[in-house]
Amino acid sequence: MLNDEEKNVMTKARIEVDHTGNCALCDSKNVELKKSHSIPKFVYDWLKETSKTLYIRGSDDVNSRLQDGPKEYLLCRKCEGKLSVMEREIAAKLFKKIANYRAQQNSVVVTESMRVGILSIFWRALLTTRSRDNNRTGDDDAALDSFLLSLKNQIVSERCTTKIYFTPFVGEPPYYNLPLDYVYQLERSVGGQDVRFYDKPHRFFATFKVPFVYFYIFSDGWEGSEIYKSSELVEGNIALNNIAVIPDELRAYVDYMHKQFTELKTEMSKNNLDKIKADAEKNQKITGSDISMSRMLGVDIQSKNTSKKQDS
Ligand SMILES: [Zn+2]
Fold first, then answer.
1. pLDDT 10s digits, 108-133
2. How do beta strands 213-218 and 203-210 pair?
């Protein structure tokens, strides 16, 4: 006979493993599903490492409401493992070279598996937010589902045929003539995954963001003149400091995201600026979050702390 405590443990164990279903990627039936993050965990780890307070950390995430919501059980162990290998490569060879307060790189070397990995982030981020409130039409939903299916097929075949574009924020702000006001958000916000639809012709612009980088995809139906200022994430060496312009569609999206962020930012500025200044004067450890905040507010805290070690 089991005592109550043992019964409780067993019930708990059963609940914890009861995430069986069909894998969203390889379609295996009735398998144990693993918890998926829409934006990879390494991004949130980086935010924590470069933040000082919980408060700032929470505000870094423009989708914190989503992140706090139920986790999605999407993938079987094998697929989760496959995607996490691609994520590790993206983290080491792309993300941490750009989102780097101490030693930002001027170039990156992109591989096919990194491109497939970026597609997999688009796929998961858009799949997990597909049912979120939206004003999509039936035609939009059909186009979105066909896009998600195309992404899935490319991930399964490990071959990227969709053109991925990206905009890194490198060097000294302001970036691409965007207002200085935007710097904190450009450098530190996460998520913002969205698909914006337009008519005549029916087309969309898909995007997501990690610190210091936007990724985006144009559907069919866009003119070359609307795309040409974008930088494609091609295989091989990419000189980041040669990227000087961004497409109008991304600029409009960045403006939109900033409007959403403004309220939070004002609150953060009020609450944190005095503390950051005081810490800088006391020569306490200056975090990446502090540097982004100070760049945005035009306060120079970095110059007198250049000898301070930054982790990222
Ligand atoms: Zn699978």
1. 999 999 999 999 999 999 998 888 87
2. antiparallel
Neighbours of 143 (CB within 10 A): 20
Measured in angstroms, how far is the CA atom of residue 155 from the centroid of ligand 1? 11
Helix (H) or strand (E) holding 217: strand 213-218
Q: Cα separation of 28 and 23, whole Å?
A: 5
Two tokens, residue 131: 């049912």
293 CA from centroid of ligand 1 (Å): 41
Statement: residue 260 has pLDDT above 70? yes
Per cent of the chain over pLDDT 70 is 76
C-alpha 62 to ligand 1 mean position (Å): 29
Å from CA of 203 to ligand 1 middle: 30
Please name every residue paired with 108 in a beta bridge, in sequence order, or none if there are none.
238
Query: Cα–Cα distance between 289 and 53 in angstroms, integer?
Result: 9
Per-residue tokens: 37? 């993050």
How far is the C-alpha of 196 from the C-alpha of 43, rounded, in Å? 24
| Spacing, Cα 95 to ligand 1 middle (Å) | 26
Token duo for residue 210:
């990690």
d(CA 167, CA 26) in angstroms, rounded, equals 31
CA of 19 to the centre of ligand 1 (A): 14
CA 1 / ligand 1 centre spacing (Å): 39
What distance in angstroms lies between residue 22's CA and the mean position of ligand 1's atoms? 8
The 3-class secondary structure across 86-115, one letter per residue, is HHHHHHHHHHHHHCCCCCCCCEEEECHHHH
Rounded distance, CA 175 to CA 186, Å? 9
Of 158, 144, 127, 113, the C-alpha closest to 36 is 127
Residue 190 Cα, ligand 1 centroid: separation in angstroms? 26
- The alpha carbon of 77 and the centre of ligand 1 are apart by a number of angstroms equal to 7
DSSP 179: -
